[in-house]
Amino acid sequence: MNRVISLGQVDSWRRAAAAEARLSSDGWVLDVATGEGGMARVLLQQWPRAKVVGLDFSREMLRNGRSHSAGWPIRWAEGDALSLPFPSDFFEAVVSAFMLRNVTDVRAALTEQVRVVRAGGRVIALEMTWPRSPLFRPFFRFYFGSIVPILGWLFTGYLDAYRYLPQSVQAFISPEELATTMEAAGLQEVQYRLLMMGTITLHIGVKAPGGATAQTRGACGACVPNGPSSPAPAATPTGPRRKSLWLLSRPGPGPVPGR
């Protein structure tokens, strides 16, 4: 469905995000809110020897991810984006695709991503944004607000979820505000670029040296390889666990589109 509503462009955006991870040959990388695993698979295409972890709050989405990614060496973890079940300074990069507008606290989600990435590592976020061009904006509003919900209903049977999609994008913070929030979360060298006529943003930030207390690194205790249908056990947290605030918000039953 993402390919349909993106007019076939979603994988090109994912490839752009994956390229920015700049992993070592066998580095660990986390895909937050992995959904059906599309971003995780593109990361492996870009970095074939990487250790890719796909995390999601929803067991159903993790099952779908395993099903869609059969044969791919992806590790799966069930967890909260606001309290990631991984040690500090573990990953070389953390990537999220169309996730941040669905959390209740963007800065807290980014702060957790900064915590689990190593010094010098990268935090990368793909997001939708409302276009700025006064000429293009009416066409985008018509397509996104009227055509996309109909396509979503025809292909999935869910209408409300795809009505929510344009509302969530329009309500989300601007690219400049997201860049400022990334800096407030502890990232440096924050930059972003606009894609697809200004409707997609790719944000990148780098964790400064000494940005978090280093811990002994080992195997990913929260991960399970592709194959098992049971959820992954959570690793022992490295600090106090906060009450979950991560919501994959939607107005009714159905998938969360744009993931």
Please summarize what this structure is:
This protein has eight helices and seven strands; from the N terminus they run ααβαβαββαβαααββ.
Observed structural traits:
single chain; 259 residues; alpha/beta; 7-stranded mixed beta sheet
Helix and strand sequence: HHEHEHEEHEHHHEE
CATH class category name of the domain at 7-132 and 172-207? Alpha Beta
The global form is globular
| Amount of beta strand | 15-25%
Any idea what the CATH superfamily of the domain at 7-132 and 172-207 is called?
Vaccinia Virus protein VP39
The CATH architecture assignment of the domain at 7-132 and 172-207 turns out to be 3-Layer(aba) Sandwich
User: How do the strands line up in the largest sheet?
Assistant: 3-2-1-4-5-7-6
- Estimate percent helicity: 25-40%
Helix/strand-derived category reads: alpha/beta
Kindly report the average pLDDT value: 82
Number of helices: 8
**Cα gyration radius (Å):** 17 Å
CATH topology assignment of the domain at 7-132 and 172-207: Rossmann fold
Distance between the termini: 10 Å
Poorly predicted ranges: 213-218, 227-259
Mind summarizing the main beta sheet? 7 strands, mixed
Number of strands: 7
